Amino acid sequence: MTRLLLVLLLLGPSQEQPLPDRTNFLIEFQVKRPGLITVLDGSSTWGLAAQYTYTEKVIETTLDSKGSPKGSKTSVFEIIPTRVPGFPYRRQIVKNGVPLTQKELERQDRKQEEETRKLEREVQKYAAEQSAKQKVHPTPPPPPRTWRIEDSDLLMAADFQLVGRESIDGHPVILLTFKPNPGYKPRSDIGKMLQRASGRVWVSETDYEPVRLEAQLDEVISFGMGFLARIQPGSRGTFERRKFNDEVWLPVRDDFTAKAKVLLVKGMHVQEVHEYTDHHKFAVDVRLKFQDPVEK
To answer: Which of 47, 99, 143, 244 falls between 20 and 30 A from 168, CA-CA?
Structure first.
């Protein structure tokens, strides 16, 4: 009898671990969203992402009114870190299925080098200005801040609810659903978008990083006061990320389908699939070097 009870106990249903407190989980998720400074100084996983290179393949398919494909084109890019962390070089190597020539690559590289130098000057100027201000008017460090959900435009624009635990590639994640919060007036573009969308997001329980996002548009989103483009309801997207070398989260696949009107006239129905492969750390002793064009 004792042995039977033991077997029944082992085979019986086990109690699932309760979900984290909603408020604390959302606050931790928001606090770990880095800004520009953390990207530049490398103090976050996003800063680590600036040390990685990978390949991005983009397949753009034009769809008819029924959603059937009419034609497609493929482009390939190399994502390469630059001397300014957080601002990678998206180097196109294939356009419309045709590899770029060496001359086209060199022209692209020279343009990128000019933009990188310009950005370096802007970053140095900003750093010098901040240093000068600190010397003239030194400010004490701010007191420790207690975060609240009300502090975040991201968390207030949508109603997030924790649903359950799952596993993606062996990594524990928390599944959340979200829908618009109509009673809130957003201050940012991402907040305005969230008030027009609904979906699900899987967040790493240990790193608080978004692992997968599924979203669909419930209302029209306008750009350029509605004159440039209007993205129609029913547009949807899926975005996936994975952890590499147990230190950094990087994209692996994006897939979105959108219906839009451009300049209030031209209708567009397209699907774009972005596949990211060959993720590896960019060697610190490797630098892209381009020759300046010869003056006539």
So the answer is: 47
Taken as a whole, the chain contains a residue count of 296
Contact 80, 71 (CB under 8 A): no
Structural domain containing residue 176: 20-131+151-280
Does 265 fall in a domain? yes
Residue at 249 is within a domain = yes
Q: What is the pTM (predicted TM-score) of this model?
A: 0.81
How many Å apart are CA 187 and CA 153, to the nearest integer?
6
Give the residue, 32 or 35, on which the prediction is more confident: 32
Model confidence at 148, in pLDDT bands (50, 70, 90)? confident
DSSP 250-281: EEEEEEEEEEEEETTTEEEEEEEEEEEEEEEE
The Cα 94–Cα 96 span in angstroms is 7
- In this predicted structure, what is the pLDDT of residue 46? 60
As a whole number of angstroms, the distance between CA 241 and CA 211 comes to 5
pLDDT digits (tens, 9 = 90+) for 161-216: 999 999 999 999 999 999 999 889 998 888 888 899 999 999 999 999 999 999 99
Residue 185 is given by DSSP the state -
Whether residue 95 lies inside any domain: the answer is yes
Please tell me the total count of domains within the chain: 1
